[in-house]
Structures are given as C-alpha cells and as structure tokens.
Amino acid sequence: MSITLSEAESRRVVAGHGVPVSPFVTGTTTDEVVAALDAAPTVVYPVVAKLCGRAIAHKTERGLVRLRLGDEAALRHACDELLAAAKPDDGDVEVLVSTMVAGNRELIAGLNDDPQFGLTVMLGVGGILAEAIRDVVFRLVPIDEVDAGEMIDDLATQRLLEEFRGEPAVDRRALIDALVGLARVGEQEAGIRAIDLNPMILVDGRPIAVDALIEIDDR
Amino acid sequence: MSHDLSALFDPKGIIITGVSNHPGKFGFVTLHNLLASGYEGKVFPVGREPGEVLGRPVLGSIDDVPDGEADMVFICTPQAVNEDLLRAAAAKGVSAAFFAAAGYREAGPEGAEAEARLVALADELGVAVAGPNGQGVVSTPSKMCAQIVAPYAPAGRIAVASQSGNFVSSFLNLAHHTGVGVSRAVAAGNAAVLGIADYVEWFAEDPETSVCLVYMESVDNGREMFERLRAVAQRKPVVVVKGGASDAGARAAASHTGALASDDAVFDGMCRQAGLIRARDVEEAFEAAATIATQPLPTGDRVVVVTTVGGWGVAAVDAMSDTRLEATPLPPDLYAAIDEKLPPRWSKNNPVDMAGGETRDTVPEILELAASHPDVDAVLFLGLGIQSNTAAMMREGGFYPDHGLERIVGFHERQDARYAEAAAEIAARTNTPVLVATELANARPDNAGPAAVRAAGRMCHASAGRAVRSLDLMSRYAKWRRARGL
Q: What is the reported pLDDT for B218?
C-alpha cells in the first residue's frame, strides 16, 4: 500500500532536489501562519491558503482552497475558516500559504512507477484539459540534461513554449533543471510511487510548481 | 550477459532432426530451404527412416554424425524427444540450436514445464538455444536459409530479430521487393533462452550488419531491455516496431501522472531515450532500416527537394510539416549555381522544381550542387523514371523501333539509370543522404530508374511521403547521437 504526503511535505521534498515551487509557509494556527509569513520575505500578497494534510487529497473539491487573499485580514479570516473546516478523519492538518503566481500557461510534470519499466518521469501540457489533450512525454528515471531537453522538444504543442500572449518563451534551462531535479527525487528518495506537479505555471517563462503531491510506499 | 551466437548464424555444419520424405514436414522443408539457399557447410539430416531425402543420406541417429563437424542443430522433432537429442548434439560439438519444434510454453502447463527443463539443459550444456516454436534463422553471409517457411533473402546489411515469425517473412519479402538485403534474420519464437536483446547485442558486434530491425510484442524485464538496447543503439542504429497497443492497465491511476501514462506513451519515451528508431508499422520499419543501411546519416534537418515537376515537391514539403525536417530556403550561392543550370521557369525556390527544363546532365549536376553544399543536410530527388515511363509507352505503342523511337527510348532509359547511379555516387562521395522516390518503384519496377536503384541494392521509395518519413526517422537517430557526442 501507499500513502500520500501532504502538499507541504511534498513541496519540501521536491524543492530539496531543485524543483522550483511557489514560495510558501505553513502553520497549524492562524497566528502561526501569519507569523511565518511575516518572517518569510519571499511569500508576498496576494497569497493562496490551503488546508493540507496527508489524508486530504481533494482540496479543491472540499472547498479547502482560498485564492487571491490580498492582505493579512483576509488571510486571517481564511485561516480561521479552513482550520474550522477540518474533520476528525483528516488527522494532522496545517494551513499552507503560498505566493499566488501568475502565468497563462500551465504544464504538468510528475513521476509514475510503470509496471513494465519502473519509475518514469513525465512532462505534459497542463491545465484542466490535460487529460483530454494528452500531450505528454515520458522517460525512464534517471534522466540527464540531454534527455530533459529532448522531452521538451518532443511535446507536440511547441507553440505553447514559444513567446505567448506577451509572455516570454519558456526558459529552457530552468525547465530542464526542474525535470532533472524531479527525476532525481525518484532516484534518491526511497519508496517513491508517484509524484504530481500539477500544475507547473510558466511565470515569465520559468516553471513554478504551485501544487505537489507525492505518493510513497507505506512500509 | 552476451551470448556468442556465431554458431547459430555462421555454422560450419548443421544437424537437422526430424527429416523424412514427406515434403510437408518441417524437417524436409528445412533441409530443402537450406540446400536451395546454397548453404556451403556440412548438412546432416537425421530421421527415423534410413534412406535419402533430396539426394542426401539420412542418418538414423545423431550418434552417426562425425565428431566436431556440426556446430548447430535445427530441431524439428516432437518435444518429448528433444532433450535427448540436444544432449547427443552437444556431445558432437554443437554449441547452438534452433528449436522450430512446438509443444512448449505455448501449449499449456506441461509444455511450460518442458520449456523450463530446456532452459536448464541449455545452461548445463552451454548451448545457445533459439526458439522453441520459432520459424528459423537466415544468414546471407553463410547462404543459409534454415527455416520451416520461405523466403530466403538477398544479401545486405540489415539484421532482423522478431518476436513474430511471420514478420520475419514480411521483412524478408520486403527485402526481395525493394532489393535492399539482409545479413541475418531470426525468429525468437518463445524466446525461452535467447531474447531480442541477445540477438541485437550480437548484431552490434557483427561486421556483416549495419542496422538492426526489431519487431516486438511483449516487454519482459523492461528496464534491463532498455539498458541493453540503449548500449546497442550507441554503436548501431536499431529500428523497432511494436505490436500490441493494448494497455497493461494495472496502473496507480490515483495520480494525474499515472492517469496520463499509457503503455504506448511510456514505450515511446523509452525508445526516444534509448536512441531506438521507432516505426509505426512493419513497412515503415523496413523502409527506415533500408534507408539507414544504404545512406550516410544526415548531420542536420535541412532538406533540399529536387523534382522534375511540381506536384511531387509540394507533397514532399507537406509530408515534412509533420516532422522536424525543414525544406531549407536555398542558400544564395546554391540558388545562383542552380539558376545557371536551369531555364528561367524553374521554381527559384525549394523544392527545386526543374519544370521539365533539364537537359542531359542537369539532374546529376543539381543533385551534386545541393548535396555538397555545407548548409544542406539531405537531398530528396523526385520524379526518377518519368523519362523511362514515356519510353515504355513508346516501346509498347506499336511504332517501335521505327520513326526514331529506338534512339529516344534508349536515351531516356540511359538517363534514368544514370540519375539513379548519380544519386548513389553523390551520396557516398558527399556523405549526404540522397533519397529517391517514385511510385514507379511499385507501379513499374522494371522501369530503368527504380531498376537501377534496386540493382545497386539501394532503397527506391514509393512516394515522397514515405521517403520523408524514413529520412525523418534517420535524422532523429542522428540527432540523438549528436546530442550525446557519439
């Protein structure tokens, strides 16, 4: 069997291997969250607040995500509501607050334990239509920078990676580093079954994961 | 682990078991095919009934084979007796066996047990065992068609390993059809001992082989196969076509990444990473292998299309739009040089449409100019054979050879043969691929153009689109090599 790490835990693991994630802090009380945010200059308003915990898989469906919080008052209100919405079944929970990054283009990346080939790393076109479009490419973990560059080249929707609606072309170097780092998580961390970075938003062409979920073997 | 398969592909002597006078039986057919292909080693038919088959004396037992004169055994006998036969053959110095015999894993639990015993026995005896339940092995350097079915194949540099026997036949039939030949071909059968990776590793070391061609359906030990085939691809190109698109299904689809994974997408990524040249179907796979076997690898994606008339060139550029190949704008010096050779009505662009303005030497000259230009990575010549097609109608129209027809027919046919020879010669000299395509390769294979391509053992593509597809696959492999400093 496997267990799913909380978003905060998942973010820390992938960030530790060089995968860029949006700046974030966590806390188990509203005061703790606000204090953590005050001490973290990289997390700036507007922010997103989410209730997260290992047992909480579907934050959006349960209304546990609060977007576009513009100041401390709004954040405090959201934290109070989110913590009050926790159910006994949810186990240990905390509030995750991250800078709300903006970009028109979304990618999806992840790891998956393939029945035939073992751990694979994926890059794809993200967003709500990702599973309909299925413009995705896979490689076997580990990958090097050359493999990562070829993953980018193999996406069918190359125009998405060029200059787009006033946003610069994708920062190839940054995306290669993110993919190599993501694959390295699978190589170096024990028991990884799956990772979703969904979505990775292209912010000024640079990929930044705004959600992360890791599934690991439960041993 | 790498097996020495030289006794399987280049045996000095072959024992065939299960030989009888019945021309429908595997033993008879194998002996027939081996003799018909001109195999020059020693052949020892073994059967229950003494006498002669196809003029060869049939031995009653492997014990009657002289020591050390056979190093391969071809097994056509029923499963129950084969372990004893393999022991007897090994005692005579046999180090490779092809098991055409069925009745193994494909036949249920008892067969599976027999197959497990065969694997253990092969290991004990140190015999390289191919099959069981396979159709045979072909090796043109040894003039050997050790198969229970047809065909043999023209000699060439493509080596085939297939998990399906009938696709071995398909590839060999395509070799006959195109004239681009084969070095080795083997059906893996149940692959009890030797699998695709074992054969391909041996092909990688084989001086007679320049490209491997693989058909596979099942993937066992995917990770190990990936590592082994990647190591081969670093040395020689490996073209892969995979059957069985259905999904294994058992995925952890709780994750988005898992939900987006399919066997086909993961297999495709594995191929790209390992440098395997994945073709969509058997025909495309053969044509890619045939192109790679007979052309230099391109050093980039810039293609110049040379055509005798317009439409073919348009089709070629259309086909390139689905690929990473580029119909490169003509470099100014190349443009100027071509402009000097053609009347003003030429296309002045890529595709270079000569608009029927070519004279005696124009085609070879323009192919040469394009292929030797440093900013051109490949040349595609369309319209080969058009003159000879006119000539064919003149030959057959009832007025030949009078009215000056003999002379013009001869001129047309010599010209097309010359163009084909020029394409080959220029490719070799400039180290730039020069592909030729015309539907006459299929419609009129006797046409002097495609016939000359074929006589040179090279691939004449049946359409611009198919040539583009082969070039694209070849170009992707070349790019994979360059990116890794190979």
A: 85
A141 contact B CB<8A: no
Chain B residue nearest residue A139, CA to CA: B269
Shortest distance between the Cα of B420 and any Cα of chain A, in A, equals 35
Clarify whether residues B369 and B415 are in a common domain: yes
- B258 and chain A in contact, CB less than 8 A: yes
Between CA B269 and CA B263 the distance in angstroms is 10
Quick one: pLDDT band at residue B186, thresholds 50, 70, 90? very high
Which residues from B are below 8 Å from A154, CB to CB?
269, 272
Q: Which of residues 200-219 of B touch A (CB under 8 A)?
A: 219
Between residues 142 and 181 of chain A, which touch chain B (CB distance below 8 Å)? 143, 146-147, 149-151, 153-154
Looking up tokens 């790019």 gives B479
Residue with tokens 């020029």: B422
The string of pLDDT tens digits covering residues A1-48 is 889 999 999 999 999 999 999 999 999 999 999 999 999 999 999 999
Q: Give Cα B342 distance to the centre of its chain.
A: 38
| pLDDT tens profile A139-195 | 999 999 999 999 999 999 999 999 988 899 999 999 999 999 999 999 999 999 999
pLDDT at B359: 85
Structural domains counted in chain B: 2
Locate all alpha helices (DSSP H) within chain A, ordered by sequence: 7-15, 30-38, 72-85, 130-133, 145-154, 172-188
Q: Are residues B160 and B71 part of one domain?
A: yes
How many contacts does A have with B, using Cβ atoms within 8 A? Answer: 105
For residue B36 the two structure tokens come to: 């018909």
Q: Is B283 exposed, middle or buried (0-12, 13-18, 19+ CB in 10 A)?
A: middle
Q: Which fold has domain A105-217?
A: D-amino Acid Aminotransferase; Chain A, domain 1 (3.30.470)
Q: How large is the ipTM?
A: 0.95
Q: Which of A125, A135, A140, A192 to mutate to test the interface with B (most CBs of B within 10 A)?
A: A140
**pLDDT of the residue at B246:** 59
In chain A, CATH 3.30.1490.20 sits at 23-99
**DSSP category for residue A115:** T
Architecture category of domain A23-99 in CATH: 2-Layer Sandwich (3.30)
| Average pLDDT rounded to a whole number, residues B293-303 | 98
Mean pLDDT of the region B278-305: 98
The Cα B453–Cα B178 span in angstroms is 9
Interchain pair A116, B222: CB under 8 A: yes
Bridging pattern class, strands A192-203 and A47-52 = unpaired
Instruction: Supply the pLDDT for residue B252.
Output: 46
- List CB contacts (< 8 A) between B263 and chain A: 116
pLDDT tens across B303-336, in order?
999 998 888 999 999 999 989 999 999 999 999 9
**Crossing angle for the helix pair B448-455 and B386-396, to the nearest 10 degrees:** 120
Interface contact B268-A138, CB threshold 8 A: yes
Determine the Cα–Cα distance for residues B462 and B281; give it in Å rounded to an integer: 16
Q: Are residues B285 and B304 in the same domain?
A: no
B265 touches chain A (CB under 8 A): yes
Residue A213 Cα, gap to closest chain B Cα (Å): 8
Domain encompassing residue B459? 296-483
pLDDT of residue B253: 57
Q: Do A196 and B255 touch (CB under 8 A)?
A: yes
How near does any CA of chain B get to the CA of A4, in Å?
Answer: 10
Cα nearest neighbour of A215 on chain B: B255
- Contact between B263 and A116 using a beta-carbon 8 Å cutoff: yes
Phi, psi for B211 (deg, rounded to 5): -145, 140
**pLDDT at site B250:** 47
